[in-house]
Structures are given as C-alpha cells and as structure tokens.
Design goal:
globular; single chain; alpha+beta
Length: 101
Amino acid sequence: MRIGLRLLALATLLISPSINAAELSTLGHSEVSHQVMPIRGLSMAAVLGKFGEPSQRFGPIGQPPISEWVYGSFRVYFEYRTVLHSIDLDSITLPSQLPTR
C-alpha cells in the first residue's frame, strides 16, 4: 500500500507542469511553503552538501531510475543523480482533504 501511494505521488509529479522554485503553492491551499528545499536540476552531491544526509533513501527504481530522499518534513525526488522535484509534506493537500462542493 505504501509503495502504491509513493508511486501514485511520483506519477502525479511526473505528469504535472515542472516547478523550478523553492517556494511552492499546492492546489487547495492558499498558503505558500517558505521551507527551503532543493530546486530542480541540483545534483545529489549538491543536495548532500547543503542539506546533509537524508534520514531515509529509497530507490533507485524504474527506468529512468528514480530515487527518493526523506528530509524531515520534505522529500526530494531524483532522476538519475539530478533533482526532479521537492515536496513540502507540511503544505501538501491530499484529494481526500479538499473541501467538497
């Protein structure tokens, strides 16, 4: 189940428009994340240098190889050795949490 949710989140990221900023606004949320996170295009070495060792590492899986690093309240996704996306888990709104109309 956990892997399925992770793959769903990753698939959503891959088909969404690219985001190249450290501040993110999520659908269904009026707040903007002000957490400093790695931006798209940084290398794994640069992320390690700035943010240190992640608390957990997953992957790589698939082709192209996708890896996930966990840093407290945010996660970083890499394609090969380059940042693809960073997600602030404190500001994300899941579809089940959106108000119904």
